[in-house]
Amino acid sequence: MSYFAAILPELILTVGAIVLMMVAAFAGRRAAGVISWLAVALLIGATFALIGAPTHAGPVFGGLIGADGFSSFAKVIVFPSAAIAILMAHGWFERGTEHANEYPVLILFSAVGMSVMVSATNLMTLYVGLELLSLASYVLASYRRSDDRSAEAGLKYFVLGALASGILLYGISLLYGFTGTMSFAGLSAAFARDGFQSLGLLFGLVFLLSGIAFKVSAVPFHMWTPDVYEGAPTPVTAFFATAPKAAAILMGVRVCIEALGPATDAWRQIMVFAALASIFLGAVAAWGQMNVKRLLAYSSINNVGFALIGLAAGAAAGASSVLFYMAVYVVMTLGAFLCVLWMRDPNGEPIEDLASLSGLSQTRPAFAAAFAIFMFSLAGIPPLFGFWAKLVVFNAAVKAGLLPLAVAGILGTVIGAYYYLKVVKIMYMDEPAAPYARVRAPIEGLLMLAAALIVSPIGYLLIGPLGTLTDRAATSLF
Amino acid sequence: MNGLPVLSILIALPLIAGVVCLFVSANAARWLALVTTLVAFAIGIWMWAAYSVGGPQWQFQEFLPLGGGINWALGIDGIALLLTELTLFLMPICIGASWRAIERRVPEYMAAFLLMEALMVGVFAAQDLFLFYVFFEGGLIPMYLIIGIWGGAERIKASYKFFLYTLLGSVLMLIAMIYMVAASGTTSIPQLMAYDFPPEVQQWLWLAFLASFAVKLPMWPVHTWLPDAHVQAPTAGSVILAGVLLKMGGYGFVRFSLPMFPNASAEFIPLMFILSGIAVVYTSLVALVQKDMKKLIAYSSVAHMAFVTFGLFALNRNGIEGALIVMLSHGLVSGALFLVVGVIYDRMHTREIAMYGGLSNNMPGYALLFMLFTMASVGLPGTSGFVGEFLSLLGTYRMSTWGAIVATTGIILGAAYMLYLYWRIAFGVARTPEAAAMPDLSAREWWLLGPIAIGVLWMGVYPESFLAPMRGDVGYILQRVERIAPPGDSRPTPGKPQPEEHLKLLGAAY
């Protein structure tokens, strides 16, 4: 029975999602609102179920899945941001002709996938979770069937995602072939015992990490990100940029520490490269972007780089810093996408051109202020909270003796600051363009306000509690 | 002290008022900002009165742990006290200077200035390393907006340049701070001031801090953002930039570089003297040929700040005290000079020196005050400029005679470019009819410039009021650096005292 208690959140979501899918199939379009609210309720319920669940149950089901502090923390990030993705879509799909019924259900399934990913303690479970997420994501990306860009995004995501899954699977099979086990504990023991005696192990490790790098869109596996982010409907983009990204990075943390812990020296080089490449490429490539979603796509690549710095630092401090960074990143990014969601031309149609933001501070001061806060925070400028997240990551890197990495990374923030400043400049210093249509969405407004408050200096009050939580979650990996 | 969190109040008051400003009308925002800054100044006066000179090193201390390695730790010593007073004193003047000059988006403007005030007080009051950094860097955001929204024609480029330059310098300092905290296990600035890092580590940390403070001060060759930012910023923005923001660089050297890395400071004296020497001569010469008034004063700021670095890295009492007085004096004088420029810019909307002339005829009051501030900038005895520059040069001489010789040319060149400027603006005949028709200072402008004039004369005639609070703190820094400071190359031999009978004879003669 305790086995099922350990996976209570996943059970709630799975059963709920299946029931809702039936409702969605037979109830028709008018049920869309109800389904959305029920899905949100399920996600909130699953989050609260985490409190009841034994957080230190350790590996269950023969070591296939582990419910510990780390996975709980990851789910606390993932479930609410999935719920917000559903809330964001509420107003969005009312305009169009698309069927909105399946959207919450797909988000629920991907939430189950992410939940399995972050608690997997076996490569096979990990793969199953990842695929569940991916399949739901491919459909979500192409959700606006009538829109060419959305269809293109879905196809592109599917083809490249399938390739990445193949690479991942190949890596898993190599590791299995050379060690005879797929459990994290077994792999760790094998690495500790034999080290890198065979090239096959090394290849397995590289392929495994490449597959994960694709999912988190770290350079050099980032190519799909701008196109998919641009083409997918905005709520879906917001979802891609937050929950799955956080889940994939935290999954990577668990794999690197629990399964590949004894091989730290081997994967650290990969992480250092991926981190720096992501930071610099994300920063430089964003300079010329004139589409706000593409800009935020590069921003997310850039931010993944900082999280990877924390991962490269390794040890409990490093893992804790990644958790801290992702928690703050998710809030900032959701806030930024809520702002994008409100970018509507005078006819109420969504608009993604950066130039349309011109002079926003004069036509819509509060909206512009919120957007500016998210931009400065993503850039890591104090006194906003994004700065503290970066500080925590660099702190871990310096403590791990990776001083050159920290210096290079922090120089990257200066390059990145340029394009965030550009958005602020357009909003505050340019002459006003045609004003946006007002969006009547009190929930989105409240969410935006909440995110802006967390990101503002008031967020510093959270440093203590959040730090304690991330430390506790990170130590459960060791 | 008496339990009242004065420093927190000084930070919170403008912050809250700034937020309120956003929701009120333009006129209400003006009055709210003025009243808030005046109240803050009044609190500042009270704080100065309550500060016990010669008392404990850190006063008005507050401590509240925020967890996760950052503490709300505030407290000031004499040096921070005076710089805080400077900030609080200049703020109402800035608001007054913007009263008519800013017509567009007034509530946001006032909010940005009040936010700026809160952050600047925070910089001088912070006793936690990371808290300091948050305040130090946080100032970039309001200043970026002030330059970018209310600035001149080239404002966008200037605001980017200001932001990115300063950020680039500061991030290296952040890494150094993280390292220091990891190595010493404390984020408390007073504790770190007494912590001895290994000399070879000190070098790197010192250089990382230099990157930040050299940009902020600014030192040659990283000063190029300053002329752009000054020229493009609105008058009050220039006042704050020159009056307070540049002082953060000097304050950083005093608070961090000297006491925390004394070995490295001693080792890098030649570097600092060479850079300062180049700055003095080069920027003074550049100032001489400027056609734009604001640009001229901006370059003169760089030259004056070189006196600060000369004095600080002389590593003796005269030098450091002189440098601190130069900082305070320059805060008043350059602020006043930007206001003086602003007065005529508001009337004619041009900064071209060639458009003016003969203003002493139609604006006698203006010409009088302009003359006073010109003289203070040149360093005429009786003004604040003299005290600071004299002490700083004296200190420099005791460390390096060559350094002093180069630095002294700055005084001559300073006299040249300032008097040349004054001559072209105030004397001769008006070159344009508009210049001849300008009215003299209004009552508001007298209120802005008058208090600064009093401050300049006070500091020049009785500098002890300003030297006394910082004496003990300079002594503390000297304790840290003097053991390592190299001997100076000047060997002044004290003369023999005159025989007593001789003096009596002399006395009789008079």
Describe the overall structure.
The complex is a heterodimer of chains A (478) and B (510). Chain A is built from 21 helices and 2 strands. With 478 residues, chain A is an all-alpha fold. A two-stranded antiparallel ribbon of chain A has the order 1-2. Chain A is globular. The two termini of chain A are 26 Å apart. In chain A, 60% of the residues are buried. The mean pLDDT of chain A is 88. With 510 residues, chain B is mainly alpha-helical. Chain B folds into 2 domains: 1-267, no CATH class; 275-487, no CATH class. Helix content of chain B is 75%, strand content 3%. Chain B has helices at residues 6-21, 26-50, 78-101, 106-125, 129-138, 140-150, 155-184, 189-193, 199-216, 225-232, 235-260, 262-267, 269-288, 293-312, 317-348, 359-362, 364-378, 384-399, 401-426, 433-436, 443-461, 464-482, 500-509, and strands at residues 59-65, 71-76. Chain B has a two-stranded antiparallel sheet. The longest helix of chain B has 32 residues, at 317-348. Chain B is globular. The chains are: A mainly alpha (478), B mainly alpha (510). At the A-B interface, helix 18, helix 19 and helix 21 of A face helix 5, helix 6 and helix 7 of B.
